[in-house]
Design a protein that fits this description.
The complex is a heterodimer of chains A (799) and B (352). With 799 residues, chain A is an alpha+beta fold. Helices cover 27% and strands 28% of the residues of chain A. The radius of gyration of chain B is 44 Å and the shape is rod-shaped. Classes of the chains: A alpha+beta (799), B alpha+beta (352).
């Protein structure tokens, strides 16, 4: 919210701060009213004054230029060369004198233009940053006082503070509210202005106000003013609104806005002639009813909105916006002025539902004091009579069904001390409370009862009073202490530990953790995965590209890898650990996943030219992760079954743990590689972590180290190229499990003397009997058994 | 055989023996590798070597001369062995140095390093904060990203149609489910589940309908909460001040400014002296010397009331920080949008 310091200065004396607005801003910020910016419009218009052209003559050396002698007041006259065409002798103009530093960045100094001296510039409003029209210089009215600073003349000698008012401080959404806060902060009184005697007329106009819904309207006051003359506002009123960024509409509407900015009470003026049957009813809308706003938008009412209606239908959405037909127009002569109090939640709901944001709705939804409507009504009447004439009717409608008992809160200084952590002082407390407009009763020593003022919607309990104490005493006075541990710490959430552990394991294997946002483009993700079910759609997405929640992590990682490759990161590995989303009835299921993408070959292989296929590197990586989690024995790969669309169908497998599928891995589908011009090998993996989380071991107990010799043996089989090696290896492992330390494949070979459909696969085994040395006979028997069973089961033979 | 003859024979044998050791010295010196050296040694002291030949002639000596000659012979044998050993050692050394020289590698060639791997700054910061808070007895807690309205708003004293809801632009799944707008719902879950007194640190993803040069619609927060018998603003400030010094560096100051959060009362914005300029003013802190890092306050009694925790017997404080903001301040990340790009040139700068 913007506030004008000149305006504030009318309500509380801050004359000493006008020249140092930063000091005032610091006070406000320290008290919780954060000042976001300070605009000192006067300072940018220094050395800009009103002048009068005494004489205009042609420039001797330039056709398009004129030389003007300009009076600057107090007998001072200067010479200025000007390129405009619209000025004449005797005109009052705006003169930027040498030393002026205009808002657009233009610095004015003495100059010689085509041989003629010029001591300044005649300005257009655009050059002063005040308007958009650039044709010619600004010509001021004949009564503009020559020599006066233009800022002062135009009411621009002001400092505008932009405040970030938090939703709890509705009482600070007006100049009076800020003045009241400053009164407590600076210990200065508010300037009390007696309301002038208003010329009141008795009136016989038959007019009724019927408040039907007193839940949503706590107070409704209003008054008729006859014989107003609608027209433009006087300069002072326009300026007041314009410096705050509001548009001037006409004198009556401007007054209602002025009172809102001054006192915080939103108001509305109806054209009495347009209120049918001379009545106003305040009640909730009928569902389906139409209402056209003064912005000419037709709204279909839902039924919960509180509406102001006349004999025919709705004329305003209470506290939100007026209707098209009932507002003040140029032909209006009699008005009904509304100053009411509407329910916070109801106004917010209506405003949000119909997407109508107004200053009025903003204030009502945060809370406006129920005490203020009649005061605002008086102030507005006074101003309307001043700027639009007319006669105010003495009778004031005032329906006040929600008159509340004063609320008293009990508090001891001891509690303040305990909660703030330093010794609070009772006398200071009392003083702070009174300065903020609270009532204070001293019940006993250091024990008080405090009444909250009607304008404070944030005060409900003793903690709120403690905050007021802390605020006025200064947060900088809070010391730094520490709560001793009263109980032993609990354990971290196991999911947090597991996330961290998985992440550490992958980092140890050279992978980098990635973060992708949880949003998904449903089309792209579907195309990539080939399947999406039970998806979660956002009601208000930022765009269609991010309209759903992701069902997979691997799509994002693939995009990351592509982007990396295109930027010259030809090789790398990324992983992500996070949850994906699915709909389940009323709820959304979050499933923790791990996805990995690896691509490209190391660049500096000057010694060995052997390239490891990424899919095997990825399989090794997966094995490593499972080994560290103690789950490697429970892992199985399945070649059968459906595969996600992004994987190469014959270079991928599904991953099973304890026989249950947990995910897939494989080489990127070659079509995807082509489509994205990816000229490197890439492998991807995605698995469900929930099972892993439950079954992972956290440590192993140590096994004794056997001292007997280890025997190394090779076995090579010839088999069909189409046969899988894994089952053969599993068989050998099973037969030899008693003594088998390790088994691996050290060669896969085809060609040479082998038939074209065959391959030779060579296994190497390390055997050890931990009890006693293995004898040749035992080993040979074992190998014979392996060869025989492999032959029986797979129809393969020794090479 | 006469004594003289016998003496002559003895002298002759001794002479031969001396000649033999002399010869062995020369021969051994001439050997250029270990094998030929050994072959030569066998010629002297092997089974059929010259020494044995001499020994066979011992039978011709008198019984008195025999031990005399035997002693000399042993001496000679030892001498030869010693000469052999010396030569072998020196040959070994030469061979070794030759072998070593022949195995020279150009170590200026590049080495083979596996990728180092590394954490994402978001998680790096999260874990660092959890570790710092764990030293004060705080335990990590998580919660769902898709939250019920109750946990994200109602229970945190943000009723429906309350303007405080405007402070956080919310993504809705339906009337009841939202993408959590802050990590504060974790406080409510903890109050429902955890034993009192409690100290927890909640972390994770949060979402707001906001996407521009300085905001991601999906970002991360970390939230600390302490509930105990008698907790004060001073305890809160002391805790945050400890955190600030641990995380950003010793000597940094912590400042509180009054603010408003529906779930705390009193509430405070937390600033710390700028870690870059240490408070003297720079572009990071916009010359103010201070950096805003988060919000905090004493837990609002209404939150306890909703969670059915007896107040004021129990009370507490809570504070929250934006992880991305912490990372940006600490590591000097120039643009928040680098975080979800996962460019390895960026990520590799976090290998530590």
């Amino acid at each position: 919210m913007k506030i004008s310091l000149k305006w504030i200065n009318e309500l509380i004396d801050i004359q000493d701060y006008l020249g140092k607005p930063q000091a005032l801003a610091d006070q406000l910020t320290k008290a919780g009213l954060e000042v976001e910016s300070i605009a000192d419009s006067g300072s940018s218009l220094q050395n800009v004054v009103i002048g009068q052209i005494l004489e205009k003559s042609k420039h001797p050396n330039a056709d398009k230029l004129t030389v003007c002698r300009v009076a600057l007041g107090k007998g001072e006259v200067t010479q200025i060369v000007c390129g405009a065409k619209n000025h004449n002798a005797d005109d009052r103009v705006i003169v930027a004198l040498p030393g002026a530093n205009l808002p657009g960045g233009l610095k004015i100094s003495k100059a010689t233009l085509r041989g003629v001296e010029s001591s300044g510039m005649l300005c257009s409003l655009r050059e002063l940053g005040l308007g958009t029209e650039g044709e010619g210089i600004a010509l001021l009215p004949k009564d503009a006082p020559v020599g006066l600073s233009y800022a002062q003349y135009a009411g621009l000698d002001d400092v505008i503070l932009e405040l970030k008012v938090t939703p709890n401080r509705a009482d600070c959404l007006s100049h009076f509210g800020i003045a009241r806060e400053l009164s407590a902060l600076l210990s200065r009184p508010i300037k009390v202005k007696p309301l002038p005697a208003i010329a009141l007329a008795t009136d016989k106009t038959a007019f009724t106000v019927e408040l039907k819904n007193s839940d949503l309207c706590g107070r409704y006051t209003g008054r008729i003013v006859h014989g107003v003359k609608i027209g433009p506002s006087p300069a002072w009123l326009k300026q007041r609104l314009e410096v705050l960024g509001m548009n001037s509409i006409n004198n009556v509407v401007d007054v209602t806005n002025y009172v809102m900015m001054e006192m915080g009470q939103p108001m509305h003026a109806f054209d009495l002639a347009n209120l049918s049957n001379a009545k106003i009813t305040i009640d909730t809308a009928k569902a389906g009813q139409k209402f056209e706003t003064l912005k000419k938008e037709i709204k279909t009412l839902a039924g919960f909105e509180l509406m102001i209606s006349d004999g025919k239908g709705p004329v305003a959405m209470a506290g939100v916006i007026g209707g098209i037909d009932s507002g003040v127009s140029d032909s209006t002569t009699d008005i009904f002025l509304e100053s009411a109090n509407f329910n916070q939640a109801a106004v917010r709901k209506a405003s949000r539902h119909h997407q109508i944001e107004t200053d009025s709705a903003y204030r009502f939804s945060r809370g406006v004091s129920q005490q203020i409507p009649p005061l605002a009504l008086e102030r507005a009447t006074e101003l309307i009579l001043q700027v639009a004439g007319g006669q105010a009717v003495v009778q004031v409608y005032d329906e006040f069904p929600q008159r509340k008992e004063e609320q008293w809160i009990d508090i001891k200084t001891e509690t303040i001390s305990q909660r703030l952590g330093y010794a609070a002082d009772g006398t200071k407390f009392k003083q702070y409370m009174l300065s903020l407009g609270f009532g204070v009763k001293e019940l006993a020593a250091n024990h008080y009862s405090v009444s909250k003022p009607a304008f404070r919607f944030d005060i409900e309990n003793e903690m709120d009073l403690i905050e007021e104490y802390a605020r006025l005493h200064g947060y900088e006075n809070i010391p730094e202490t520490f709560v001793p541990l009263a109980a032993l710490p609990s354990q971290h959430d196991p999911k947090y530990n597991f996330d961290r552990r998985i992440s550490r394991i992958l980092q140890e294997q050279g992978q980098h953790r990635a973060f992708n946002m949880a949003f998904a483009n449903p089309k792209d993700e579907l195309k990539f995965l080939g399947q999406r079910t039970n998806t979660v759609r956002l009601r208000n997405p930022l765009s269609e590209d991010s309209s759903e929640l992701r069902t997979s992590l691997v799509h994002g990682l693939f995009q990351n890898a592509l982007a990396n490759f295109r930027r010259g990161n030809e090789q790398g590995g990324l992983f992500e650990v996070d949850s994906v989303f699915s709909r389940s009835k009323e709820d959304v299921q979050e499933t923790p996943k791990l996805a990995i993408v690896i691509w490209g070959q190391p660049k500096n292989l000057w010694q060995s030219k052997i390239q490891i296929q990424k899919v095997f590197a990825l399989k090794g990586l997966l094995g490593g992760v499972l080994r560290k989690l103690g789950l490697e024995e429970r892992l199985a790969l399945e070649n059968s079954g459906a595969r996600p669309a992004y994987l190469h169908p014959s270079q991928s497998a599904s991953i099973h743990l304890d026989g249950k599928p947990i995910g897939h891995f494989g080489t990127l589908h070659p079509l995807l590689a082509d489509e994205n011009k990816l000229r490197t090998d890439m492998a991807l993996l995605e698995i469900d972590l929930s099972v892993l989380l439950q079954s992972a071991i956290s440590f192993r107990r140590v096994e004794p180290l056997a001292q007997t010799p280890i025997v190394e043996r090779d076995l090579a089989f010839v088999m069909k190229k189409s046969q899988s090696v894994g089952p053969v290896m599993d068989l050998l492992k099973m037969i030899g499990h008693e003594w088998m330390l390790e088994i691996t494949v050290f060669d896969v070979f085809s060609g040479g003397s082998l038939p074209p459909e065959d391959k030779s696969v060579a296994f190497k085994m390390w055997l050890q009997n931990p009890e006693k040395s293995l004898e040749d006979k035992q080993i040979n028997e074992l190998l014979a058994k392996m060869i025989q069973q492999a032959k029986d089961k797979f129809a393969i033979s020794m090479r | 055989m006469t004594q003289d003859l016998s003496n002559a024979l003895l002298n002759d044998l001794i002479g031969q023996m001396h000649a033999l050791t002399e010869k062995a010295l020369t021969e051994f010196q001439n050997a250029t590798d270990k094998q030929s050296l050994y072959d030569k040694k066998v010629l002297f002291s092997g089974k059929n070597g010259s020494v044995t030949e001499l020994m066979k002639k011992m039978g011709q000596l008198t019984p008195e001369q025999k031990p005399q000659f035997g002693a000399k012979l042993n001496e000679a044998k030892q001498k030869i062995e010693q000469l052999y050993q010396e030569r072998e050692t020196s040959l070994g050394q030469a061979e070794l140095s030759q072998k070593l020289a022949s195995e020279t590698l150009d170590l200026t060639l590049p080495g083979f390093a596996p990728d180092r791997g590394g954490d994402h700054p978001v998680h790096l910061v999260t874990n660092e904060i959890v570790d710092i808070m764990a030293r004060l007895g705080y335990s990590a807690r998580l919660g769902p990203m898709v939250e019920r309205d109750y946990y994200n708003f109602e229970a945190l004293n943000i009723p429906k149609d309350h303007p405080a809801r405007d402070m956080q632009d919310t993504f809705f799944v339906d009337d009841n489910l939202v993408l959590r707008t802050h990590t504060s719902p974790i406080q409510i879950h903890s109050l429902e589940k955890d034993q009192l007194p409690l100290r927890i640190v909640g972390t994770g993803s949060v979402f707001r309908v906001d996407s521009d040069i300085s905001h991601l619609p999906h970002f991360h927060q970390i939230e600390g909460m302490c509930v105990d018998r008698n907790v004060s603003m001073a305890d809160l400030k002391g805790t945050i001040a400890f955190f600030v010094r641990e995380f950003f560096g010793p000597g940094l100051k912590t400042r509180f400014r009054p603010s408003y959060f529906p779930f705390t009362e009193p509430s405070a914005e937390v600033d710390c002296s700028c870690p870059l300029c240490k408070g003297s003013g720079c572009s990071l802190c916009k010359q103010s010397g201070w950096i805003e890092i988060g919000g905090s306050g004493l837990i609002n009694p209404k939150v306890f009331q909703t969670a059915k925790i007896p107040y004021p017997e129990w009370n507490g404080f809570a504070f929250g920080f934006g992880i991305e903001r912490m990372a940006i301040i600490k590591y000097g990340i120039p643009d928040i949008r680098l975080l979800p790009e996962n460019d390895l040139r960026f990520l590799r700068q976090f290998e530590f």
